[in-house]
Structures are given as C-alpha cells and as structure tokens.
Write a structure and sequence with these properties.
2 copies of one chain form a homodimer. Chain A is α+β, with helices and mostly antiparallel strands and 522 residues long. Chains A and B meet through strand 2, helix 3, strand 3, strand 4 and helix 4 of A and strand 2, helix 3, strand 3, strand 4 and helix 4 of B.
C-alpha cells in the first residue's frame, strides 16, 4: 500500500523526472490534456463535445468573472439576460451571420417526448419554427434593443450578458474548443459611428488590461483581416497571446458591427435633429477559453501554475507532524497562521488560505497542490514552530527550492510575495513571446520559420516551432487563404501599434503598407 | 409636451390614485404584470415562453446569487458546471424522473442547418440520439458523480451549479413560470442515509434563512405529500410563502433522493468496512421564481418594493434645482452626500447610492424610483443645503410622507434606517400571512374559505381570497387529487413544526395524525 502511495502523483526517480507525463517537449498536446487532468480543472462529459468544469477549474472561472464584471460595470455596463433559444428566422436576418453559424448549431425541433412504437421515447410535438441554441446573441438581443431604443436619450445602451453558448464543433479540446462553453457577450448601441468605434476599442483595452494584469499573459492588440472577421461585423479587433508551443491563441474579440445588425433588427432612434436613424452597434466577448490560454501560457512539466491574482487559493499550509502527540499542536499553529494570512489583502480580496490536514502522505499532498498550481506552499512542523519560522515553497520555482523564513516576516510580506510571483510570470511569458517573435522579410525564411524540423535543440518537438512572424502583406485575401492551406499559417492581426513602415509582401513581393502578425494558431 | 410629461408615470388625480393600474383589488394578475413592467424588471421575448431579464431585475438576481452563493460556500459546497444537454437515454435511467419531465422538454435533434428545396434553411445532420435541454441535472451530474466517487474518502461530495434550465411550460408568466429560467441546483452524495437527510434539512434551512432574513418573506418549512414530490425523490421538502392574493408560492425545494439516482447512475463507493455501497444523494434548488415571490410579497399599488438587503440601489438622491445658477452647487452637494453614504456599510456591502441628475421633471423621476422600489429617496435643494438638511422619503411609506432631517444624522443612521425598513417589511408580510392563516375543522368552512365571493370587504376581488388552511388530512392521495380538481386547492406541505395533535380529516372525517397546510398556489 505504501509503495503504491509513494508513486501517486510524485515524479519518479531523479530530479529530471516531472509530475506531468509526457513533458511539453515530448508531446505538447498530450501534455496539455494531462495538465488539465492533473490540475483537476475539467473533464470530458458523456455528452459529445461538452465538458464538465470541475470545482477547481470553475473557481478560477469565478475569479475571471468577478474581475471582468467589475471592469464592465466600471465602464458603465449593466448585466441582463436574454433567451437561450433563437428562432431560425432571426438568425437569417443577417446573411453573413447565418452563413457563419449554420454549419455548427444545435437545433431544437420538438418540445416533448412520447413513447414510440417499441416503447422507447421519441421526440414529439414538432415546433412550427425550429429554435437554434444560441451560438452568440446578436440577433435575439438586437430584436430586444429595437424595442428599448426609441430616442437618442436611450443611447448609449450598454449591456452585458454572462451565458452559455453552443457551437457544434467537430474536434473539441477542453476549454479551448468545446461544443458548449461559458462566456460573456457585451452588446451596445450608440448614436454615432464614432461612439461605437470608441466603445469597440475601449473594451478591447479592457480585455488587454485583464489579460496582462490579471492573467499575467501578454497580448497583442490588433485588427482582423476580412477573412478572420466575425460573421456580420464591419471590423473585428482581437487580443492574441502566444502559447508555449508558439502558436497564437485568440483570447478575446471586440466587434464594430456598423449598422449591419441594427438594420437587420430595425434598431432605430429619433435623433436630437428630428431624424430617424439606425443605431451603431458593437459586441465583444471572452469565454472559458481564457482558462485554456492561462494553462498553456504558464504551466510547466509539473503541471498548472495559476497567476496569483486569479488563484482560488493563494497559500496552502501543509502541517508536518510525524508523531501523533505533536499533531494537534502543529494543526492549531497552522490554523492560526491561516487566520493571520486571511487578515491580509491581495488584489482586492483577503488572501485565500487552505490548511490541508488530510490524512495523506506529505509528498502526495504537496504534489497535488503543485499540480493544481497554487502559488505558495507552506510547510510547518514542530521544529519550525519552535524556531518561529515557516518553510516556503513557490510554484514559480523548483519544488526543492524551498526557503525557511521567520513566520511574521512571511505573513507581513505575503501580499508582496504574491505580486512578485505575478509580475515574474508576466515577465517570463513576455520574454518567451519576444524570443519567438521574428521580423521576417523573405519567403524562404518565412517558410522555414513555420516548418517543423527534428534537428537542433530549439525544435526538439515537431509540435513546438515557429512563433509570431512580423512580415509584410499585400492585402490580398487569396494570398492569405493560400498560405493558410499550404502552411497552416494565418494572419492573427494587423497590430494597432503597427509602424507606418511600407515594404514588400513576404509572399508576393507586392507593395505593403505595414507588417502584420502571422502565426499558426488555436 | 409638458402636459404629456406630467402624466408619465405619475398617479393621476387625487390621493386615491396609484402609480400602477389596475390595483391589486381591481385585477391582481394584471397588477402583477404591470408592476413587473413599471419596475423595469423583465419582459416577454420573441421566443415563446422565454423572458428577457432587464438590468434592474437582473441586478436583484445578482444580489440573490451573491448572498446564496456565500451561504452555500459557508456550508462547504463548491461550484462546478455540467453540460446543458442530457442524452435521452440518461433521462430514461430513472423511471419516475423521465415521466415527470417528458411532457415539457426541449429536444435537440440536429446539429446544423442546410438550404432546403425553397432556399430556406432547414435542420440537417440528425443526431443518433436526441439531446434534451436540461430541465434539471440529476441524471447528467449523477453520471459524473459515478466517476468521482470511488471511496468513502470521496464523500460527502457537495456540489452546486448556477445554470439555466428549460421546461416547456404551456402557460407562462414572467419570473413565476417561464420556459427557460435561471437557477442553482445543489447536488450532493453521502455515505449514509442519515448524512444525506441531514444535508437535505440543512439546505432547506438555508433557503428559509435567506427568504426571511434577506427577502423579508416569511416561509413555512415542510414536507410534500407523495403527489407533490419531485419525480424520483424519496422525500421533497419545501419552503412556502403566501402572496398578497393569499395563494401559496413554493419558493425553494430540497430533495432527499435516497438511493434512487445513485442506483440509476451507479454512484457506488468502497466503504471503510470494505463493502461496496450505493451513495445517498440529495438535490436542492431555487430559481428566478424568487424574484416573482419577492414582487408579490412586497409590492403595493405604486409598484415594486425591494427589500433593502437585496436592493441594487439603496438610496437614490434627487437634486432639486429649479434655477440654472444653483444647479451645479446642488449637484456637487448631492455627489458629496452620495460619497459619504457609500462609506457606510449595510448588510455586508457599501450602501449603494445613485444620484439621478437626468434632465427630467422631478415628479417623473421620483415616480420612476418609486416604481422600481428603491428603499430610500432623498431630495436636496438649495434651501436644504442652507439648512444642512435632507428630505427623506421611504418606499415603505406613502410618497407624501416625507421628512426633513439633519444631513449628518441621516448619513450616520442610514444603515439602521435600511434595516428598519427591512424589518418592517418582514413584520408586515408575516402579519398578512398570519391574518390569512386559519385553523379549519369542518368541510363546510374549508369549502367556504376557498370559494371566491363578491360580497364583503375582505373579498372585494374574486382573485383575492382564501389563504392557508391548517386542517387535518387522512393521508389518502385520492382525496388530495379530488380536492385539487374540485377546489383547485392542494396540500402545500406537512409543516415541520406540526403539533402531534391528532384529529379527523377535514374532507373524509377519517383519522389524521396532524394538520397540513392547504392552499391555492402558483
């Protein structure tokens, strides 16, 4: 039994072994799945493509929600809730929109069940009009906005919704691409184009702020090319992050919808000048995909690493008492320590502490918390109590790199330590991204950059290669499509901070007005 | 224009007129719809039976969520998220359960759309097995619990989910009965019957605590008769409130599921004694129906009245400046007052204050806030500033019953005032319920109690009559069904605090072991 326990969760053999098998280098995709599993974040459900978000994963999502919700409210938005179902005819109101979602939507056709000829239940009560489970809510919210907006005094209308949505994806991956996912979708209506454009950029900025300062994930802000736009949008803006396999991940989008949806839904208002006008609308969203982005930005071969500002538990305290007669004293000491830590504030809330007093081998316990990515682990045994010290392990350092320090000093400095870990994670992720971002000017270099090789240290794993290529583009959608087909590379965005440098398209040699960001992507 | 504005929202004519037409006495059902409309809480959507929850209504729901979520976590529960869809075969695993929901469920049969012969889109990609949009999640969560529970060490498993659910109701009413609604569903698994029963009662107690101390809504706690049980449950417990038309409203339920669902889903564990056993499970839920209960418990003929502890805005400040030259001074003064109020805590959060500086007639503004049910309204004009006073109106008193008081005294006492209003609302609701609860011992009195009459003050509206009848019942389900058919009266619950008084069934005269609560109900 104890031999069995020894193996559970703990890396085996020497220092080179890791808690997650395989490592990133060995098999990046499988490593991701194993990090999710070992971190107790989510699992596949019996329903095709739908995931179960487990308590630890959901607690991270709750923190994402809490912080973003505060940011939305601080920028004047209010939450509301709209129907799960969209009548088929509503979806059809915007031509590009329905084209974009028709191939991947769940369709409700009946409203009850009855016993079939063999006694088995079958659908019954066919609906006159099929209902689509919302893949996004522009059309149903648009129909409501048309009622709410009558006069320029009703504008701007700034609404957000936290909801589940369904897109029938054929190939799913936990958090990154699932048939059902959780998200927020902001929907706003404005009197002028300028105001709507300003809102689009404001919310892109909110997402970038959240990504960098809460997720410790550096992002590029940019505009999508036509081929990558949201179906029905006039412009789509995005934040793009680099994962550890150097692929890009679109972490949030903000759409300027122009008057496309207001015309489709008849969102009209009487302006101050006495004219009847169509409103200008925007929509913007982030989803549980952010959890996937967080995992792939920060985790290592020992598992998850949660940025402290989003961690459900900041500090876990592990009582170390080998003799039964000291167990209660050690536990009491740990609980007092937890109390003192909880009296400290970090990032707008009390420091969250868990005392893990489970009857489990200490090593197993520690490895569980490592794999869950808790930022700080504290070990306290009888000798530490005697010395008034604690043994501190940081998730952003090796598991053997532990440090003894005076208990009170640790308590006083805990919030600063968490912020230091947060800052370090952002700096590390930024350095990684910068190291794999390259300015490229020739087709040959471009193709080589995106071609996996098995030689050389840098490309040990064929999955891990490439990065962000800053290269010129002539603007031809056909060229973009050809590169996508041939190399699996797309234009992630036209960066907002693009220099006005002109040049020649890296593919065609035709004139270009600026560099864009090319990458393989999720 | 000004004549038009004068009418908007303000009661017309003398003191007897009200902001809501019709009044409760005139037409209770229609009064309810008008309170919801005037309070800007929710509206019907273009999707059959589904509602749009508007920002003010959703903000109240957010407060409900925040408080309940804290109570769930304080009792050891963690949130998670499970799929929206349930495979038909899962629903069929528990025979009573599927019978209970088969007649009212949304069925997904296809996963994409294609152009039909006439160019119109039609469902395509038929699913091998239809999916049901969850009406409740016992079966899908049960399948997951079966994986999570292996040993007695995995128990108790205490999970909650915040989610949307769909029950295809034919007759819907905003908040009270809608095809889609928002709720929380707790699902727990335990090693013993006793522990599961204890959990069932604990969560019933949490609901009763929330109803009384946060919603200011007194509730009876009790057990359901067999006919009113949740499909598949061994016992269903509930909290029942009395609305102002004296009908009962079931505001929350807590189910002891025995081993029915653990057997259907194979939730088994290896107990400490080495035996393989089925777990004992519970489930419990409250929904957006609570908002409907809150409306009908507290609103009056001027509209909504939100209990201060759940109010999105506690105090609204109305600057009164008739001359342009004083407007800025008054506004500045109001903003400073708002700041000082926000520095005070009430019910675990800062006092929420809104300064309504909109360019609208003062009377119209005031009536909007009355109809939204904000607990306290403050008017501040140049003379009040001079005198260092504020003009205070309370939603629980008449709109003309306003009081001038020193500004600083008001600020210091604001939290106490809010609690006083809260306490008053609970006391009033309790007095109303008690006044319409009657101990009944004869069939004649029972029938008269539940028969609307048009004579006498007490029964001015045929809709408003009856109440809670405490009467003996022989326990025969057929009798219960007959009374339901004939009088529209059901047994709301067998109260937990039932005396052990024996007697004779009010309908059959057969022996009874205790009084039960009969009422018409929502």
């Amino acid at each position: 039994m104890s031999g069995n326990e020894k193996q559970k969760g703990a890396p085996q053999g020497g220092a080179a072994k890791t808690a997650i098998t395989p490592t990133r280098e060995e098999n990046y995709s499988e490593w991701y799945q194993q990090v999710v599993r070992a971190g107790d974040l989510a699992e596949n459900s019996p329903v095709r493509g739908c995931m179960v978000i487990k308590p630890w994963g959901y607690a991270i999502w709750e923190n994402v929600q809490r912080v973003l919700d505060g940011m939305f409210k601080a920028t004047g938005h209010r939450n509301a809730y709209f129907p799960l179902f969209i009548p088929l005819s509503f979806l059809e109101k915007e031509a590009q929109h329905v084209d974009g979602f028709a191939k991947e939507c769940a369709v409700v056709t009946h409203h009850r069940l009855k016993a079939g000829p063999d006694g088995k239940l079958v659908p019954d009560g066919e609906l006159e009009e099929p209902l689509i489970v919302r893949p996004t809510s522009e059309t149903i919210i648009g129909a409501t906005f048309a009622k709410w907006v009558q006069s320029y005094r009703d504008l701007p209308l700034l609404i957000n919704q936290w909801a589940n949505v369904v897109r029938w994806e054929m190939r799913t991956r936990l958090f990154l691409r699932t048939a059902e996912f959780l998200w927020q979708e902001g929907h706003t209506a404005h009197a002028t184009r300028e105001e709507a454009e300003e809102e689009t950029m404001r919310m892109l900025g909110v997402y970038a702020d959240f990504a960098e300062n809460w997720m410790a994930m550096p992002v590029l802000q940019g505009r999508k090319t036509e081929g990558e736009r949201f179906p029905g949008a006039e412009e789509t803006y995005c934040i793009e992050a680099m994962m550890q396999d150097r692929k890009a991940l679109q972490a949030g989008t903000s759409h300027f919808l122009g008057q496309n949806f207001s015309k489709a839904s008849e969102i009209q208002f009487l302006d101050a000048d006495g004219q009847q006008k169509y409103a200008w609308t925007t929509s913007w969203g982030v989803s549980t995909r952010l959890i996937g982005a967080m995992i792939m930005t920060h985790s290592d071969d020992d598992g998850l690493c949660v940025p402290p500002r989003l961690a459900p538990t900041h500090v876990v305290i592990l009582p170390v008492a080998h003799k039964p007669e000291t167990a209660q004293q050690v536990l009491d000491h740990c609980r007092k320590l937890a109390e003192d830590l909880r009296a400290q504030q970090f990032a707008g809330r009390p420091i969250e502490v868990e005392v893990d007093a489970r009857d489990l081998r200490g090593g197993d316990k520690m490895w569980q918390w490592v794999k869950k990515g808790v930022p700080v682990r504290i070990e306290v045994g009888p000798r530490d109590i005697e010395q008034g010290s604690v043994f501190v392990g940081r998730r952003d350092r090796g598991t053997k790199d532990k440090q003894s320090m005076p208990r009170d000093e640790f308590v006083r400095g805990a919030a600063a330590l968490l912020q230091e870990i947060q800052d370090g994670m952002l700096a590390k992720a930024r350095a990684f991204r910068d190291a794999h971002t390259r300015t490229i000017d020739t087709t040959a270099e471009f193709e080589a950059f995106f071609t996996p090789t098995r030689t050389g240290d840098e490309n040990a794993s064929p999955e891990i290669h490439g990065g962000f290529a800053l290269a010129h583009f002539c603007g031809d959608a056909a060229v973009e499509a050809e590169v996508k087909d041939r190399l699996g590379v797309t234009i992630r965005c036209i960066p907002l901070e693009a220099s006005s440098e002109t040049g020649k398209c890296v593919i065609t040699g035709r004139p270009s007005t600026g560099r864009v960001v090319w990458a393989k992507s999720y």
